[in-house]
Protein 1
Amino acid sequence: MSDCLVIIPTFNEKDNIERIIRKVFSLSRSMDVLIVEDNSPDGTAGIVKSMMNEFSGRLFIEERKGKLGLGTAYIHGFRWALERHYEYIFEMDADFSHNPDDLLRLYDAAKNQGGDLVIGSRYITGVNVVNWPMGRVLMSYFASTYVRFVTRMHVMDTTAGFKCYTRKVLETIDLDKIRFTGYAFQIEMKYTAWKLGFRILEVPIIFTDRTQGESKMSKGIFKEAVLGVISLRWRSIMGKIKPQNVRVS
Ligand SMILES: Nc1nc2c(ncn2[C@@H]2O[C@H](COP(=O)(O)OP(=O)(O)OP(=O)(O)O)[C@@H](O)[C@H]2O)c(=O)[nH]1
Ligand SMILES: [Mg+2]
């Protein structure tokens, strides 16, 4: 039984999903996989289900009714993980922008180097992005700088979506209070963890643009992030970022 769970949210990833699942299961450390599927019209769920016999007890799927956004997909996955025994809970995209081999490096930083939350970072050693148009690289890089400026958080890649959470971080964050869903979700999770005093480590990774399937990036997601950061900082000033209430039994 593995204490690692890799959560992969999917929407229309039929060209990537089987390969990425096989790749995770080929790693030298055993990790379970949870796919959070939003009823993709392209049949992604069917592909996952056809593999579940082969990877029985290691591959899981949670299906939602429609495209409800990345943030809520991850929250769903986090709750699923917390109801079970997992100690290291990873976020990873399905499209190979995140190299599954790096899961081992994130794990090592969480297990052996004291990271409560470990981020696969594109910007810790310069700019490690392959095949993105220059406009998108610049936008992402300056977005990270903007977020650092507004929040004062010491994280280079604030919108990164390749992460390893230790269980205690997800247990402490009040997941009901997480409000954003796109890039802002990634910022909100890091900011909340940081505000709650957890140690965040960044591990350099190379991020490669997807070669299969279509982008789901939208203007709305970008706008949410720009305004969301200001709202996060405001909530923090108002003392609204608190750990989840501990129930006294
Ligand atoms: N379950 C679920 N997964 C989603 C949703 N939106 C995106 N995803 C998945 O989340 C991951 C990241 O989304 P991407 O579309 O790769 O977003 P991106 O990396 O910002 O942009 P591109 O790589 O250019 O498409 C992928 O695995 C997507 O399939 C959603 O609404 N629900
Ligand atoms: Mg992508």
Protein 2
Amino acid sequence: MRQDYTCIVIGLGGIGSAAAYWLSRRLGADLLGLEQYELGHLRGGSHDHSRIIRLSYHTPEYVTLAKQAYRAWEMLEAEAGEPLVFRTGSLDLFPAGGYIPLTTYTDSMDAAAVPYEHLSAAEMMRYWPQFNLTDDVQGLFQSDGGFVAAARATAAHQRVARDNGAILHDNTLVTAIRPAHDIIEVETPAHTFHCQKLIIASGAWANHHLAHLGHQINLTVTQEQVNYFASPHREQFTPDRFPVWIWMDSPCFYGFPLYGEEAVKVNQDVGGDEVTVENRTFEPNLATLQRTMDFMARVLPSACGPLHYSKTCLYAMPPDRDFVLDTLPGYPNIAVAIGAGHAFKFASLFGLLLSEIALDGNAAAANLTPFSFTRPILHEANPVKEFMI
Ligand SMILES: Cc1cc2nc3c(=O)[nH]c(=O)nc-3n(C[C@H](O)[C@H](O)[C@H](O)COP(=O)(O)OP(=O)(O)OC[C@H]3O[C@@H](n4cnc5c(N)ncnc54)[C@H](O)[C@@H]3O)c2cc1C
């Protein structure tokens, strides 16, 4: 088995598969991707049918990055020959006195020249009678919002990467990383591989790999879940009649039109318990489920119905819930990406940026300052954690 490559990607979830794709466009067979489980597995942070994509975000930097994310997906869609991003519009709902201020979103979209509609509760219920809202709730509707077909997008990244010649090994656990001068040794049970550039895209497992390089960061891993409800009124939730939506408060809930299942998907954001990759389970959290169902009964009653299924999934969040997208201090040839529980919409863009960081030494197209590995909050003792964004 070939053991020397220009670049190796550790982890083939949403972000690692995207990195493999964008690197394969320039390296072909000189790119190796390693995944500990089978491709498309259900143990990390990227699985399921859909993930929200939106331009509405809480800072202008994120809004600008989201614009670039759409372009990266368009390029993959063109090469993969299939649609992966579905625009249904996105609706952000802000109850009066809620935890997440509406103005951070309007100011950010205004600063980035993104058009949106500011709606009253009555207007929202006229457009989407599925919602039951009190008068104090305001909404921001942005027409480019929607969802990415998550599992299909990750499979497309993997498929086209292989079509470009990339080597992807699944069921291959990376057990050690040993930098030696300008070569990095990447050890697996059967083989030790060598590369000049390394991408660590191992999500909730990131600190395991950083430890091999003498680094650790503040990272909270939570066990989240996706829930599907077999609403008897699911015809009201088809993508042409219902947007993706986010209830901007704490607790924060979010949902989707029908996609992938004959059931309505509604989840709580950061609704799960803190876990480790060793002690996480695959049992849905019944308290989170009950909170979600109570919320639905109040705000989205026609979506209620028997639970079709719930599936667990991992968030890996720095204390400020900003991403990590940077090279490591002391290792300019090693880059790390961590998605902070909201990065799938950016996955293809992160893949492109990681390929530029690895092969060009920097990501020309994007402002990555907010995502630096050296920002103090990642290394402080007892950092203040703010996960509601
Ligand atoms: C329930 C839920 C809902 C979400 N909703 C949204 C949303 O609507 N919109 C949005 O933008 N984002 C959303 N996100 C966040 C987004 O899905 C994640 O940020 C993103 O998918 C993380 O991708 P990743 O590649 O970093 O992680 P992962 O997909 O977890 O990939 C890491 C990979 O590394 C592999 N790995 C780890 N250790 C090793 C090793 N030693 N050797 C080899 N391989 C290894 C793992 O097996 C895994 O496959 C959601 C996440 C969850 C959990």
